[in-house]
Amino acid sequence: MRFSLLIIKAETREGDISEEELPPFRELFDAYAASLQESGALVAADIFRPAAESTTVTLRGGSREVRDGPFIDAVESLSGCFVIDVPNRAVALEWAEKCPAALYGVVEVRPAALSFHDGRWRGES
Q1: For residue 118, what is the DSSP state?
Q2: Is residue 51 classed exposed, middle or buried when 0-12, 13-18 and 19+ CB atoms within 10 A define those classes?
Q3: Is 68 helix (H, G, I), strand (E, B) or coil?
Q4: Spatial CA neighbour of 12 closest among 59, 48, 57
Q5: Regarding beta strands 106-111 and 76-85, do their DSSP bridges make them parallel or antiparallel, or are they unpaired?
Q6: What are the phi and psi torsion angles at 26 (to 5°)?
Q7: SS3 of residue 8 by DSSP
Q8: DSSP 3-state assignment of 32?
């Protein structure tokens, strides 16, 4: 089954985290991603730029509307995602517990209803 481990945390502002504080977390995330890959569970991983750098697109009445900034103005936002393929929810929860983001934010475990791979949409197994 595919699951997305969604990393949700407070938006970081300029100066909230010093350069000295970053290396330990980078090392934790490097080790976490490597262990997911070595286990064969990792499908994809992304750490996102700040929500302020996002753009939303809608299509209404045949007209495209593009807006700078996030869809929702919130204190917390989606800051990254690990997509994993594991046998069941229990294993997904174990991986979520190991995610370094659980130390300072929330890791939401969301099962995929459908996934597109090998040229077609596939349902949950």
Answers
A1: T
A2: middle
A3: strand
A4: 48
A5: unpaired
A6: -60, -40
A7: strand
A8: helix
User: Rounded CA gap, 14 and 81, in Å?
Assistant: 22
Closest to 6 in 3D by CA, of 83, 73, 70? 83
For the stretch 43-66, pLDDT in tens is 999 999 888 888 999 999 999 999
The one-letter amino acid code at 64 reads: R
Structure tokens at 41: 């569970």
| pLDDT tens sequence across 5-48 | 999 987 766 656 667 777 888 899 999 999 999 999 999 999 99
Give the torsion sign (CA, 3, 5, 106, 69).
Answer: negative
Q: How far apart are the C-alpha atoms of 65 and 123, rounded to whole Å?
A: 32
Alpha-carbon span 38 to 35, nearest angstrom: 5
Residues whose CB is less than 8 angstroms from the CB of residue 101 and which lie 6 or more positions away in sequence, other chains included: 7, 9, 79, 80, 107
Q: Which helix (H) or strand (E) holds 33?
A: helix 22-39
